[in-house]
Amino acid sequence: MNPLLEDAARRASNYLEALPTRAVAALPAAVERLQSLEEPLPEHPQAPDDVLRRLDEIGSPATAASAGGRYFGFVIGGALPVSLAANWLATAWDQNAALHGPAPGVAAFEQVALRWLLEILDLPRDAAGALVTGATQANLCGLAAARHAVLKRAGWDVEADGLFGAPPITVVVGAEAHPTLFKSLGVLGLGRNRVIKVATDGQGRLRPELLPRLSGPTIVCLQAGNVNTGAIDPVGEICERAKASGAWVHVDGAFGLWAAAAPSLRHLCAGIERADSWATDAHKWLNVPYDSGLAFVRDGECLRAAMSVTAAYLPAHPSARSPSDYTPELSRRARGVDIWAVLSALGRSGVAEMIERCCRHARRFAAGLKAAGYDILNEVVLNQVLVGFGDAATTRRAIAELQRDGTCWCGVTEWQGHTAMRISVSSWATTDADVELSLAAMLRVAARCRA
Ligand SMILES: *Cc1c(COP(=O)(O)O)cnc(C)c1O
User: Fold this and answer.
1) 350-450 is classed CATH 3.90.1150.10
2) Is residue 254 within 6 Å of ligand 1 at its C-beta?
3) Residue 102: its pLDDT value, please?
4) Domain 85-342 - what CATH class?
5) For residue range 235-249, what is the model confidence (pLDDT) as tens digits?
6) Which of 93, 148, 161, 174 is 20 to 30 A (C-alpha) from 210?
7) Does 281 sit in the ligand 1 pocket, CB within 6 Å?
8) What CA–CA distance (Å, rounded) separates 390 from 387?
9) 188-206: b (≥16 Cβ within 10 Å) or e
């Protein structure tokens, strides 16, 4: 066996095995040591095994243990072992997943993964899909398809003629839309600020009764899974109104869309299949390695019109789907392999169980903190919990102490005027024991800060 690859596999395996017993945050000494990277570009070759050893010695301790079971910051998934292993093998293949012709194998895995995803998320089975880097890029894909469609209906070819002189597009978003949605709107020339913001309720859900009268080219952006509360907009109700007026409905469901894959949570997404485009992540709740996002568009021709690429040297395959006709990229890695591996290994019931398990852990956190007298600031409908430990300063102090304590990791957020700690349970690796250990640490630290 190739000793370098064997060494890498051994080091990776040792790293993962040590996660349960190490501090979750990178220790200050390890971060300090990153300074040693500040050296001149090597003039001459170095032995690859030395390079790998240094990477491990300097890099591994300077990581957050987000691949382990007690990392609850942001919305960060782990990587199921089967998807990590598949990812390694596919990286060894080093295929360019842009085109079907030169890389038929990875194109086939991608196509099957997309078909299974539409089934598991219960979206229109003939929707087009794109495997991209994350939900930010997936939002870009959905909104680019939307821009194409609403302007085409107004007699304007945006891909050919651009936006100068085009009929204006009304863009409606919820006041609690994710910041990356505005980034995508800005990139597409739709403007980060020239949007109509609709107020939300106490959970961050867009209030449908405040939706303005819609006419002309319009894109309505909804959200499934508020990053703070996990709440999902009343998608079905809004779709009905928006679509009656001919608007395009896009759903940013970076993690919340996965509620659709779990029978006990599916009702939260009722009517979501009536939207026109959907963005989600695989690297969050499906637990594949970074980076992996997904865009789906009901009328695939709109995505294709926005993203297709043609050139004499790019072999068009008359009967096969060319992935790069649906993505912003041309060359790219074979993300479909990691996703195919997870869906193969877990199946429909395994994915549902993973999603439901994370939500059960979130409810346990909320119940344990509430029983100790702390304020739970959201309805725990999904995998997100917001907790306050007293006034803002006390909450901030408790979070900082918890991060230093090292048992688990949670971050700070501001929610509708309150400073809160955010717990996001998004990893396959989190066990009941991880939750109890983490909860005990939270209660210990919070009690000390309150005293
Ligand atoms: C995480 C998230 C995003 C951004 O996703 P990336 O994968 O980081 O690009 C967008 N919207 C929502 C609601 C999110 O939770």
Assistant:
1) yes
2) yes
3) 87
4) alpha beta
5) 999 999 998 999 999
6) 148
7) yes
8) 9
9) bebeeeebeebebeebbbb
